Amino acid sequence: MVLTCLKCPWIQCFQGIIRFWLDFYFNLSHSGHYVICAVAKTEVGVDIEEIRQNLELDISRFFHPKEHCAIMQARAEQQIPLFFQYWTAKESYIKYRGMGLSLELSSFYYNKGKIYTKGEIPKGTITFYNAIPHYQIALCTSLYEKQNQLFVVSVKELF
Questions:
Q1: Closest to 136 in 3D by CA, of 39, 51, 69
Q2: How distant, in Å, are the alpha carbons of 73, 91, 93 from that of 99?
Q3: Backbone phi, then psi, for 9, in 5-degree steps?
Q4: How far is Cα 87 from Cα 81, in angstroms, rounded to an integer?
Q5: CA distances (Å), origin 32, targets 8, 21, 36, 111, 134
Q6: What sign has the CA pseudo-torsion 30, 31, 36, 41?
Q7: Where are the beta strands (DSSP E) in the chain?
């Protein structure tokens, strides 16, 4: 598994990586000044979000009741980081499953590295990365994927 996060433009960075695999999966995400690409031999989903302090969202609409309750019961200074942790976990999961927003965000929840749905055994695992200040990164892979690496590359390093 290779995770690369860098400022745009980014495509040239991946030409060498992709050449090594005939069968591979990849997923992209962007936020603020960064684009992230996850490349793996199995299904993969990734999300990056710039952490913003002033959010005006109706979180009950997007979160499972267990997540909503956890956010609302957290100390005030923990609510925003917890929001972004749950949000990136959910985004990476729906991308991992290949379902996009056809999978309602409130229909599943994140807890201790796994995503849970009604009557379903978790199919993926979530790993968080804090490699870039003020950004949250979540990666969703199969339960058996163990070789996760994160490389942060700037545009200056590419050229």
A1: 51
A2: 30, 10, 9
A3: -80, 155
A4: 10
A5: 10, 30, 11, 27, 10
A6: negative
A7: 2-6, 25-31, 34-40, 44-50, 108-111, 114-117, 125-129, 135-141, 150-153
Partnered with residue 26 across adjacent β-strands are: 39
Distance CA 113, CA 89 (A): 9
* Residue 153, amino acid: V
Q: Which residue is it, tokens 């690496």?
A: 149
Q: 89-142: per-residue pLDDT in tens? A: 999 999 998 887 788 888 888 988 888 887 676 777 899 998 889 999 999 988
The three-point CA angle 108-111-115 to 5° equals: 40
In the predicted model, is pLDDT for residue 7 greater than 80?
no
- Say what percent of the chain tops pLDDT 90: 30
Backbone angles phi, psi at 96, to 5 degrees: -60, -45
Whole-number pLDDT of residue 15? 46
Query: 152 falls in which pLDDT band (50, 70, 90)?
Result: low
Which residues have CB under 8 Å from 113's CB, separation 6+?
125, 126, 127
